[in-house]
Design brief:
Blueprint: E1 2-7, H1 10-19, E2 27-32, H2 35-40, E3 42-43, H3 51-61, E4 65-68, H4 71-75, H5 78-84, E5 89-90, H6 94-101, H7 103-112, E6 120-123, H8 126-135, E7 140-144, E8 153-156, H9 159-172, E9 182-186, E10 191-194, E11 197-199, E12 204-206, E13 211-212, E14 215-217, E15 221-224, E16 229-232, H10 239-260, E17 266-275, E18 278-285, H11 292-299, H12 304-313, E19 327-335, H13 351-356, E20 360-364, E21 367-370, E22 373-376, E23 380-388, H14 391-403, E24 410-411
Parallel strand pairs: 1-2, 1-4, 2-3, 4-5
Antiparallel strand pairs: 6-9, 7-8, 7-9, 10-17, 11-12, 11-17, 13-16, 14-15, 16-19, 17-18, 19-23, 19-24, 20-23, 21-22
Helix pairs in contact: 1-11, 6-7, 8-9
The chain binds adenosine monophosphate and glycine (GLY).
Glycine binds near residues 212, 226, 285, 289 and 292.
Amino acid sequence: MKILIIGSGGREHALAWKLAQSPRVEKIFCAPGNAGTAQIGENVPLGPEDIAGLVDFARGQGIGLTVVGPDDALAAGIVDAFERAGQRIFGPTAAAARLESSKIFAKDFMRRHGIPTAESREFTDSGEAQAWCRAAKYPLVIKADGLALGKGVVIAETPAAAAEAVHRAMELGVFGEAGRRIVIEEFLQGVECSIHALVDGTGYCLFPDAKDHKRAFEGDTGPNTGGMGTISPSGTLDGPLLEWVKTGVLDRFVAGIQADGLPFRGMLFPGLMITADGPKVLEFNCRFGDPETQVLLRRLQSDLLDLLEACVDGTLDRQQPVWDERAAVCVVLASGGYPGSYEKGKPITGLAEAGALENVVVFHAGTKAAGDRILTNGGRVLGVTALAADTARARELAYGAADGIGFDQMQRREDIGGA
Ligand code: AMP
Ligand code: GLY
């Protein structure tokens, strides 16, 4: 089967790497891909926003399954367009992906279906939001309703900070339409982790848990990023908590989409806060996480194509994926300045040597090939991913491999997988 993967990040390189191991996969295309996906298959110069071009490409090449990485393509209706054209595609429709692309929609869904989440209120009027902030307890969390490149959440410690966040989102429009409506919610204290579950409309298949490190700097300080590194397992979801997540979140989610007639088929990736009152959902993502996918797919021993197809076909109940018991750690190497502005085009050294180490895979994110050199081409550049008997050893292996890789102004966190 020919596969088309949409996107260009580390997640898409990991998807390509894993799908290439399936004996049923004949060729992988990645649109637009990066230097890593180009080593596995063929990159196609079409961006995720060029939905008509991608449908034409899939039809012309006889693609058997298209797999969507990024959220904005899902929100823009890429799955709907492929389905209308009779092309097989993995991911939720735009209507179902609203669970990620509108926090107000997601909050309403969770409230109606008894899924535990932070207490919140929605606002469409900035005056009302400002009045609410003046009387609230702090810290307070202010979220743009729509997709805002991971920057739409502000944790305000003071009324002045909350007023500023409301003003920027609703009055100045710094997130565009995404921030004209906002959710203001209580601050939850606890340990953050996430799960991934394939959902086929009537059931789900749970992946192991993973933990991202979202802040730019050590000790969870600095600005939020797309993710500076991940570990799996996270060590936070033990047996009873995991059971609780299944019954309290996933069972209710599947019952909810059926009750609402929301045909969700794809990856559900809820962000969770494990609070003193049990796990609560911070947000729903309707796609594979990045860099969560890098660690999860290192641990998946079964054929990913079988799982994705079963999800599209509604036959997940027949799948029982096998997972590596070992721990995976992914350390992101980013461009200096990320998540703010950064330079591109820096030559990367040491890639081949690091990738040749046993149990290490270097996933590319923002990279591009230029002749026989590989250059930086984005904020997150590489994800050095290692598998070992436990997190401490996987961490040592990943950092050891990452030490051999260099580019000008490289930035990384030193505490991924640390205590
Ligand atoms: P979200 O995009 O909703 O996951 O929010 C981004 C990040 O903000 C999360 O990963 C949390 O670290 C933090 N966050 C979001 N909502 C809350 C909350 N209610 N309480 C505490 N932290 C939160
Ligand atoms: N790593 C967080 C995300 O993919 O949203």
